[in-house]
Fold this protein.
Amino acid sequence: MVVLITKEFSDPIINFYEEGIYSPSTDSYLVIDYLKKCINEYFFNEIPIRNITKILDLGTGTGIIAIFLQILKIQIPDFNPIIYASDISQKALKNAKINERENKLEKEIKFIHSDLFNSFPNSLKHSFDVIIFNPPYLPSSEIIKDKQEIDLSWDGGKEGLELILRFIEEAKLFLSLNRQSFIYLVSSSRTNLKWLGEKINFQGYAHEIVAKTHVFFEDIMLNRLKLQ
Ligand SMILES: C[S@@+](CC[C@H](N)C(=O)[O-])C[C@H]1O[C@@H](n2cnc3c(N)ncnc32)[C@H](O)[C@@H]1O
């Protein structure tokens, strides 16, 4: 009989040094709590944690998810992936780097400034076992002139899905082919979920909801996508 010893993991220290950076919210902690569960089970679904070599936290914001993963590496010797964190916002990356330092991690996370995967080097193609994206997923009801930094965190396009659709298409090129690999993607009941599900299937992914929470007027879901 295998006895699982459940460890408690604390959340990283997160501070704000730039304006307009997304403040970790219910959606961020839905991801963090799910990662805690995976680590306690020693599996990211079917992937044993010791087989995971690269994880990408896309749209890292304050860096909370990437920093949490990097801290886990210190606590769990079997968990040793290289952690990448990217964002379209230079300010977010600057803030995330400071938060990395404040968590006593010395330039260990690999930061990439990029609009989705546009500026990723070719060497990272087909290399990630896990890609995590807590995206902007709210519909922009009107065309925003003069976009502010914070709008990048919530504006998912006219229907709230445009950026996610680009992501699920482009991510295929960066998921590892050698081993099993997954995407963990946050979505909200405020977007057209039926349509999103159809698009995910159309791109060749199997899809299931692995965690869910309710906050005020919406359900927030963590979706696991796996190429078929
Ligand atoms: C909802 S916030 C999530 C932040 C953080 N991951 C968290 O969970 O707290 C979305 C993040 O995606 C970034 N983002 C928006 N559009 C992007 C794009 N096209 N490429 C990369 N990052 C993007 C935003 O700047 C923002 O930091």
Notes: The helical segments are 26-41, 64-75, 90-102, 151-154, 162-171, 193-202. Residues 22, 24, 28, 58-61, 64-65, 86-89, 92, 115-116, 134-136, 152-153, 163 surround S-adenosylmethionine (CB under 6 Å). The longest strand covers residues 205-215.
